[in-house]
Fold these 2 entries.
Entry 1:
Amino acid sequence: MTAAIKDLLNQFPGLYEDEEIKYEELEEEGGIAFSNNAGALVYVEKEDIIGCVHQTCQYPFFVVYRSASSARERQKMSIQEFLDALGKWLCKEPAVIDGATYKLKLYPKLAAGRQIKRITRDNSYGIEPQENGVQDWLLPVTVEYTNEFEL
């Protein structure tokens, strides 16, 4: 799941050409990454009479946007707009980026009987800045997916 989410995040049209969202890897003063939030969770599991297991699962994670110049109001608003657009795009909502509207059409195909059903997000927020002015902004995201396999 982690590799599929990384690939999906890096398709976001709001990223600059040389920008990449990495997995749990941030520079000291800036960058964008994502990190698991308690790992994948199975919420419902049912087994049918022929031994096929049907699971409803969630993969919660955070997108972390780190900025060294977030003391300025303009920079904070820019980060907030970026995370809001990313969240909308992931949820298949129209997202306006540099005056153009983008909408994610399909979620990536997953291996081994898994299928993304929907992605939801919470509001993004900034955490307390460090003494050197570096501040992390978080966007909580949850991927809801099904998993089916035979015993």
Entry 2:
Amino acid sequence: MFRATLRQHYALSGVDLLVLDAYDGDVGPGDALTVALPDGGEASCTVRDLAWGSAMNATQPPLTLIVEGLGAQPAVGAEIRSAT
């Protein structure tokens, strides 16, 4: 089970970037995710790719998910989790 907190969201042409503040569990291309929305609903998306960042002395390296199918505007702090 993957869980994360959204730090930033960027909507691009055909994909969305989800920059994560904190995360736990495994995630990879093809995984289905659920993202909490400000109105109390949820949106689903699929991980297309991911990018690991680097940080000196970080216990968790920065993680950005490139997702397809989100079609929504999640707020900073939104919960992201595995759909299964």
